[in-house]
Specification:
79 residues, Glutaredoxin, four-stranded mixed beta sheet, 3 helices, 4 strands, globular
Length: 79
């Protein structure tokens, strides 16, 4: 499983999300202020930050938390 974290520079809860992501392995960070991050966010339907998207080996979405910071136990359960 792969964890994708979508953040934005003016997002008030994004620092909390980044701290949480630092406790996990294999996390990809995407800044939606940048073209590449915005494109990836659009692909997964991410419209708010912070957002976590969990994907399988082929990139198919397994679980997501959009516009919120989940508890670490919730993330670890899926990963």
């Amino acid at each position: 499983m792969k964890v994708k974290l979508f953040v934005k520079s003016d997002c008030p809860r994004c620092p909390e999300a980044k701290t949480l992501a630092a406790q996990l392995s294999d996390v990809e960070f995407y800044n939606v202020d940048q073209v590449d991050g915005l494109a990836e966010a659009a692909f997964y339907g991410v419209m708010s930050t912070p957002s976590f998207v969990i994907t399988d080996e082929i990139g198919k979405e397994v679980k997501s938390w959009l516009g919120t910071v989940p508890k670490i136990d919730e993330l670890r359960k899926v990963c």
